[in-house]
Description:
The complex is a heterodimer.
Chain A: E1 32-36, E2 44-50, E3 53-64, E4 77-84, H1 99-113, E5 124-134, H2 139-153, E6 163-170, E7 173-176, H3 180-185, E8 188-195, E9 200-204, E10 207-208, H4 212-250
Parallel strand pairs in A: 4-5
Antiparallel strand pairs in A: 1-2, 2-3, 3-5, 6-7, 6-8, 8-9, 8-10
Helix pairs in contact in A: 2-4
Chain B: E1 10-11, E2 16-18, E3 23-24, E4 28-31, E5 34-37, E6 41-46, E7 49-54, E8 66-74, E9 78-82, E10 89-92, H1 105-108, E11 114-122, E12 128-131, E13 138-140, E14 144-147, H2 153-157, H3 162-171, E15 174-177, E16 182-186, H4 189-204, H5 211-231
Parallel strand pairs in B: 3-7
Antiparallel strand pairs in B: 1-6, 2-5, 4-5, 6-7, 8-9, 8-11, 9-10, 11-12, 11-13, 14-16, 15-16
Helix pairs in contact in B: 3-5, 4-5
Amino acid sequence: MEDIEHIEKHVKLIDDSGRRLDGRxxxxxxxxxxxxxxxxxxxxxxYIEWGGNKVLAAVYGPREAHPRHLQDPxxxxxxxxxxMAPFSVSDRKRPGPDRRSVEISKVISEAFSAVVFKEQxxxxxxxxxxxxxxxxxxxxxxxxxxxxVALADAGVPMRDLVTSCASGKIxxxxxxxxxxxxxxxxxxxxxxxxVPRTGEIVLLQMDGHLTYEEFQKAMxxxxxxxxxIYDLQRDALRRRYSVTLEDILKESPPAAPSGERMEPxxxxxxxxxxGI
Amino acid sequence: xQSSGSLRPIVIPGEAVGGPGLKPGSGTFSDNGQIFAAQLxxxxxxxxxxxxxxxAGRYIPQPGDAIVGEIVDFGPSHWLVDINSPYPAPLHxxxxxxxxxxxxxxxxxxxxxxxxxxxxxxxxxxxxxxxMADREARRLQGGMLMEVSPTKVPRVIGxxxxxxxxxxxxxxxxxxxxxxxxxxxxGEDRNAxxxxxxxxxxxxxxxxxxxxxxxxxxxxxxxxxxxxxxAT
Lengths: 276, 232
């Protein structure tokens, strides 16, 4: 019988021409799509698809902080809950908070604490919920990027959007935005979040080992990518409100408002044959 | 508000909205002599003051605001009022229009009652106190309540109340618009429904130019439709 313990497990993550498993070059991002204002009940919300990641973010507040003893008389709390759906990974994830999600929640809430104008809302809390629906490495970056759009959508005053991206090392080569296989079989992963306007770093973590030079290279890659993602975030917010803007352009006076979009439905009023 | 011209662009938190020589107003902050937007909104500039009118956000009470509140709890000498903001707001019995004996608060207003009141004071940690001392303040009876985003309230009211008074005249409704985004309106059923519709239109098209005309047209159309069957 074959000794399965000694089958070579090596996966070739990057070929000789510098192409990765999914065909990207070392400095390429996975495709990203962001949509703002997807949830009706939340004060602000956003949905992001980042490669195979699908993440929903909702923001509530500023609202009364509960429990009361957590309230800070000088500033608002920024609370975050990062949660993975049981069906988000290939094996079922046991639902509920675990060591990993508590840690991610903590670092993300700290990242946002750095940009929100907390002093404007003493005794309140701004609650951020990040729900990972489908995971494929880099969910904390995706979640953070979406939550930042959701915060702006909620009208929470802040210094800038927070943008996040990860870089890592696979087969000795520093690469941007690792996917699942690269994350699992690679040498290192280093997620970071920046405030693009000032270049401040608000989140920096590392799994694995990088030399100082490799780390510098990873930082440069992530920062350059973050600026590209920043444009996508801003674009998502503009699109959310340009829907209203297009309506206005189309129906600038004296054009009459169209009937079908009125609320409640015209039939509810029984307005007669000439109703709107 | 300009009567015509291009639409004012939307600014996003962190976006530069002004340089040296301008002063940062609400919804903005300055950093190194530059002014940036702090909120998602529309940029405005007046007398060298740059501000961002937010498109979303919660109601933060300011002293003097006329608001519509809902009683959520009461103690022996006060009522607790929900004012649609992150902060709970007590109304002390001495600030009510009645002479309330200690422990008698429930005889005057119960949980669920709606009131028109004013913000008496807000301190630095945002402790809010309400008052009903003003003549127009009262317990609201009858009518209906609706909620709009607090950021849209100025549009519902209009310049010097032009929008709301037009709706009032045209629909023969009594309307109170609270700064907290709660609106109380009372009138004949059909009229109140028309007024509610007009307010929903304003909320939906808050950034539009010539909104007053659009609203007038909507109300006229609906009322013509209402008169139609009778005329034929």
